[in-house]
Specification:
Elements lengths: L1 H25 L9 E10 L7 E11 L6 E3 L6 E3 L4 E6 L2 E5 L5 E2 L5 E2 L5 E2 L16 E3 L4 E4 L2 E5 L2 E4 L5 E4 L3 E4 L3 E3 L5 E3 L1 E3 L5 H37 L1
Antiparallel strand pairs: 1-2, 3-18, 4-17, 5-6, 5-9, 5-13, 6-15, 7-8, 10-11, 11-12, 13-16, 14-15
Helix pairs in contact: 1-2
C-alpha cells in the first residue's frame, strides 16, 4: 500500500495545480490579474509498524508580480501602476490591494472599483470626485487634480513579504504582513494593466499536468489489479 499512498498524495497535488492553472487561463484577459503557481513540497508521514514514507504536499501558492501589458484607454477613471505597488481599496472585510485600476465614481461621488470598493488616497481617505468636475488631471506620481485643484495622491502600496499576499477573488489581495507606501510610484492615467498570465505557457503546463495525472491513475489501477490478484491467490 505504500506506493499507493505516495501516488495518491501526488495525484492530489496535481489536481490542485490543474485547478489553479485552469483558473489562470480563464483569467488571461482579466484586468490586473496576477498569475498564480503552486509550490510542491515533501513531508514525511510516519506509518505504524512500518518505515516512514516520503509524501507530496502541494498547498502553498505563489503569486507572480511580473508587469502585465499596459494598454491606453479612453477612460478618464482608468489607472495603471508601472512597476511595483498596488492600489488600496476599502471593502466590507477591510482594506485590500489590487492592480485592477478600472474605476468609476458612484452615486455619492466616491471613486470605486467594479465591485463597489472605495479607492483610497495615500493617507487612507476615500477618493472623492466632485459631480460637477469638468477636467481631471493625474500626475505621474498619482497626484489627482480636479479643475486645477489638487485633491490628493492615489495610494500606491507594497508588501514587505510577497508570500504574505492572500488572494481574495480574482484581483483582490489581503496582506498578512507589513504594508508600506511606495516612495516613488508611477501611475499612468487612461491606462489599464492587463493580466500577466502567459497563456501559451499555462496551456502547455495544463497538458503536462493532465498527462502526469493520467499516468498516476494508470499506475493506481495496475496496483489495484495486482493486489486483487495477490488476494485471490492467497484465498485459493
Amino acid at each position: 500500500m505504500d506506493t499507493a499512498y505516495v501516488t495518491l498524495s501526488r495525484q492530489s497535488g496535481l489536481m490542485n495545480e490543474m485547478r489553479l492553472v485552469a483558473n489562470n487561463i480563464a483569467n488571461a484577459n482579466t484586468t490586473g490579474y496576477r498569475q498564480q503557481g503552486l509550490v510542491f513540497s515533501e513531508f514525511i508521514q510516519d506509518m505504524p509498524n512500518n518505515s516512514s514514507l516520503s509524501m507530496v504536499r502541494a498547498e502553498a501558492r505563489n503569486t507572480s508580480l511580473r508587469q502585465g501589458v499596459l494598454t491606453e484607454t479612453d477612460g478618464q477613471f482608468d489607472f495603471a501602476i508601472e512597476g511595483d505597488g498596488f492600489f488600496m481599496v476599502e471593502t466590507p472585510d477591510g482594506d485590500r490591494l489590487t492592480r485592477a485600476g478600472s474605476f468609476s465614481p458612484n452615486a455619492q461621488g466616491d471613486l470605486v472599483t467594479m465591485d463597489g470598493a472605495r479607492v483610497l488616497y495615500a493617507n487612507g481617505a476615500p477618493v472623492f470626485i466632485p459631480p460637477d468636475a469638468a477636467s481631471i488631471d493625474v500626475g505621474s506620481d498619482g497626484t489627482l487634480s480636479v479643475d486645477g485643484q489638487l485633491l490628493g495622491q492615489l495610494g500606491v502600496f507594497n508588501v514587505t513579504n510577497t508570500q504574505a499576499l492572500v488572494r481574495e477573488g480574482s484581483t483582490l489581495f489581503r496582506a498578512d504582513g507589513a504594508i508600506d507606501p511606495v516612495d516613488e510610484p508611477v501611475v499612468l492615467h487612461r491606462f489599464l494593466e492587463g493580466s500577466n498570465v502567459n497563456a501559451i505557457q499555462q496551456v502547455t503546463r495544463l497538458v503536462e499536468i493532465q498527462r502526469a495525472y493520467e499516468l498516476g491513475q494508470s499506475f493506481l489501477e495496475s496496483e489495484d489489479e495486482r493486489m486483487r490478484g495477490a488476494l485471490k491467490a492467497l484465498m485459493r
